[in-house]
């Protein structure tokens, strides 16, 4: 008696394939931690001590956020409001011509958009006003 081998057509059972895929999907969804992309945090330095400059040799520029206008920051030079950033160029050129030792003190609110600060700095650069410093909130040291 001769025993014959049956040739099977190698089938892969696919009836539970959907269950396996669904379980893997649930596993990865529950174990994956989704985190918002965190940008670089900008920390502005605080001063402990500074040097005083003479009032006659200093022009003061104040900037604060302003909503609902053509520009997004209120800019004031020595108590005179600036309507357009282009005006900073003319005003600072006149001040620098009168006083070549002129320094500019910028007091900028932390919520002011940097694009506005950059616009003013660009106008100061064009006016060749190179002595620019920023005023920050002073930390109280040990008493």
Could you explain the architecture of this structure?
The protein is α/β, with parallel strands linked by helices and 143 residues long. Helix content is 29%, strand content 17%. A five-stranded mixed beta sheet has the order 3-2-1-4-5, covered by helices on one side. Strand 1 and strand 2 form a beta hairpin. Helix 2 crosses helix 3.
Jot down its keywords.
143 residues, 5 strands, 5-stranded mixed sheet, Nucleotidyltransferase, domain 5, 29% helix, alpha/beta, rod-shaped
CATH class of the domain at 55-134: Alpha Beta
Into which percentage range does the β-strand content fall?
Answer: 15-25%
Instruction: Return the string of H and E elements.
Output: HEEEHEHE
Radius of gyration, whole Å: 33 Å
Structural class: alpha/beta
CATH topology of the domain at 55-134: Nucleotidyltransferase, domain 5
How far apart the termini lie comes to 109 Å
Tally of contiguous helical segments: 3
Uncertain runs are: none
Widest sheet, order of strands: 3-2-1-4-5
The number of E-state strands comes to: 5
Query: Percent of residues in helical segments?
Result: 25-40%
Shape: rod-shaped
CATH architecture label of the domain at 55-134: 2-Layer Sandwich
Mean pLDDT: 80
Give a quick account of the main beta sheet: strands, pairing sense, barrel closure. Answer: 5 strands, mixed
